[in-house]
């Protein structure tokens, strides 16, 4: 028998939305993302029905406690660091105190504390030419190999998308049938590589989505000659709703500012 | 781009696909007794199977829970295998002691390496917890897991199945793959990537990979 602690994100429960179907709340996904995904017509407060019996052990193995959520978070952070810098050293070398403090700040939703620690990780911003310069590998003492120059790679931005498929064309998102099954949500975990292209001064979220989800953008040309476009979280022609973990107007200049913000939103 | 990416221990999606398909073919050809076949599973995008993306699955691997009765092999089996039992072998222990494992090899775009996803089931269909899975692992694997930071088990959302599975964290994979592959030429490196990778990743989860996989055909 598990007691649900709503402050603790690790316990799963089933809930009633507007539909008569049960939808499993999946752990490890920030509650804000779940709310955006599963409530087409935002209801406040979000009514949840909590079940203490009949745990679906054939579908979901029981949560092992807060530690497993913390490790999942740390691994996401390592992955984000790896994508951005090419290795996870900055995260793996965090002091114990910093690791604990960071987790506490995430748990409590304390952005200031979080920023204090995350800035030390130096996860952005990228330079103007969109290239990441990794420092050369430390040379061993007395080695007669010349120190290899640092490598230069195009920068990548970590992106996680939860895409909910809606079966028909809708005029208003609120008219969508609420999600009845987690199977109808696709999870895409794929970094977006920023490349300097002619005619494109900045990279927008829309461009990133077009690249990562080409099947949803159909006939739109991927290369645009025009200047900056407004960042759009929802494509206007596709019948689907995609929910990215950031999805804010700050993404207008993702190359310079948002890797950190995307990380914050992705990890928060 | 990506032609000699295996020099740094990584591989591109195309190389992964090619290596996966080669693995499936070769595995089928060597007729492994104790394990089922790897299968290629295309991903579904918008309900349609993708031609360019997929993963490799090995499902229905039986494991007798540690501490249960000794298995009794049929007299035809040449080598008794305590840990992994094929479905043909007759077994004395009760159904409750049998766990069933599924293994998937999925490409990671973040790390540009393969990642092993796995889950275990009890006979009644309930999913196993990490502690229960650890009990199924041979001692050297458990030690490897506890000591090595390269083969650490975590929970991640399966990229194609909308559920959390267990996974071997891939952050060190490219480093040790670089070592494993450095003697191979470019052409061999791509196709041999998965078998080489499996020799390490498989060990960590107690999956016995037959040596015949590494012999040239």
UniProtKB/TrEMBL annotation, chain A:
Stretches for region Disordered: 219-268
Residue ranges of every copy of the Autophagy protein ATG5 alpha-helical bundle region domain listed in the record: 66-122
Keyword DNA-binding: no
Family: Belongs to the ATG5 family.
Sequence ranges assigned to domain Autophagy protein ATG5 UblB in this UniProt record: 156-221
Lineage: superkingdom: Eukaryota
Any one GO molecular function term: Atg8-family ligase activity
Binding partners and assembly: Conjugated with ATG12.
A Pfam short name: ATG5_HBR
Subcellular location: Cytoplasm
Gene Ontology cellular component terms for the protein in this record: Atg12-Atg5-Atg16 complex; autophagosome; mitochondria-associated endoplasmic reticulum membrane contact site; phagophore; phagophore assembly site membrane
Protein name: Autophagy protein 5
Origin species: Aegilops tauschii subsp. strangulata (Goatgrass)
Any one of the GO BP annotations: piecemeal microautophagy of the nucleus
UniProtKB/TrEMBL annotation, chain B:
Keywords: Autophagy, Transferase, Ubl conjugation pathway
Signal peptide annotation: none
InterPro entries cross-referenced by the UniProt entry: Atg3/Atg10
GO BP annotations listed: autophagosome assembly; autophagy of mitochondrion; protein modification by small protein conjugation
Entry superkingdom: Eukaryota
Family: Belongs to the ATG10 family.
A GO molecular-function descriptor: Atg12 conjugating enzyme activity
Organism whose genome encodes this protein: Aegilops tauschii subsp. strangulata (Goatgrass)
Lineage start: Eukaryota, Viridiplantae, Streptophyta, Embryophyta, Tracheophyta
Protein name: Ubiquitin-like-conjugating enzyme ATG10
Gene Ontology CC, one term: cytosol
């Amino acid at each position: 028998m598990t007691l649900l602690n709503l402050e603790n994100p690790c316990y799963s429960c089933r809930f009633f939305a507007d539909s008569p179907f049960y939808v499993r709340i999946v752990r490890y996904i920030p509650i804000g993302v779940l709310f955006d995904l599963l409530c087409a017509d935002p209801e406040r407060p979000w009514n949840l029905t909590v079940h203490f019996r009949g745990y679906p052990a054939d579908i979901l193995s029981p949560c092992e406690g807060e530690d497993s959520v913390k490790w999942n978070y740390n691994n996401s952070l390592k992955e984000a660091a790896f994508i951005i810098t090419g290795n996870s050293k900055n995260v793996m070398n965090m002091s114990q105190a910093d690791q604990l403090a960071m987790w506490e700040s995430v748990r409590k939703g304390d952005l200031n504390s979080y920023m204090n620690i995350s800035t030390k990780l130096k996860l952005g911003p990228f330079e103007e030419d969109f290239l990441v310069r990794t420092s050369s590998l430390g040379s061993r003492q007395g080695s007669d190999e010349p120190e290899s120059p640092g490598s230069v790679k195009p920068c990548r931005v970590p992106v996680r998308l939860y895409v909910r498929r809606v079966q028909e064309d809708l005029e208003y998102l609120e008219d969508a049938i609420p999600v009845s099954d987690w199977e109808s949500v696709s999870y895409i975990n794929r970094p977006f590589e920023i490349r300097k292209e002619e005619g494109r001064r900045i990279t927008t979220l829309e461009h990133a989505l077009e690249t990562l989800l080409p099947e949803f953008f159909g006939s739109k040309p991927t290369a645009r000659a025009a200047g900056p476009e407004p960042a759009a979280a929802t494509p206007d022609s596709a019948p689907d709703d995609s929910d990215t973990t950031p999805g804010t107007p700050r993404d207008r200049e993702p190359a310079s500012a948002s890797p950190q913000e995307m990380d914050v939103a992705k990890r928060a | 781009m990506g032609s000699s990416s295996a020099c740094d221990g990584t591989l591109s999606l195309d190389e992964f696909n090619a290596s996966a398909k080669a693995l499936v073919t070769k595995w089928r050809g060597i007729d492994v007794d104790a394990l089922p076949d790897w299968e290629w599973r295309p991903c579904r995008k918008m309900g349609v199977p993708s031609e360019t993306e997929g993963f490799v699955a090995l499902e229905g691997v039986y494991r007798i829970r540690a501490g249960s009765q000794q298995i009794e092999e049929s007299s035809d089996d040449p080598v008794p295998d305590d840990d992994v039992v094929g479905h043909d072998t007759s077994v004395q222990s009760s159904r409750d002691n049998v766990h069933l494992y599924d293994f998937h090899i999925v490409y990671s775009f973040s790390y540009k390496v393969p990642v092993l996803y796995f889950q275990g089931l009890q006979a009644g269909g309930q999913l196993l917890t990490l502690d229960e899975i650890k009990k199924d692992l041979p001692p050297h694997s458990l030690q490897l897991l506890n000591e090595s930071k390269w083969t650490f088990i975590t929970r991640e959302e399966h990229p194609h199945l909308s559920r959390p599975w267990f996974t071997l964290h891939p952050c060190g994979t490219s480093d040790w793959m670089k070592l494993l592959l450095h003697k191979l030429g470019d052409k061999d490196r791509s196709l041999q990537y998965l078998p080489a990778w499996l020799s390490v990743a498989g060990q960590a989860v107690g999956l016995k990979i037959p040596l015949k996989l590494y012999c040239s055909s």
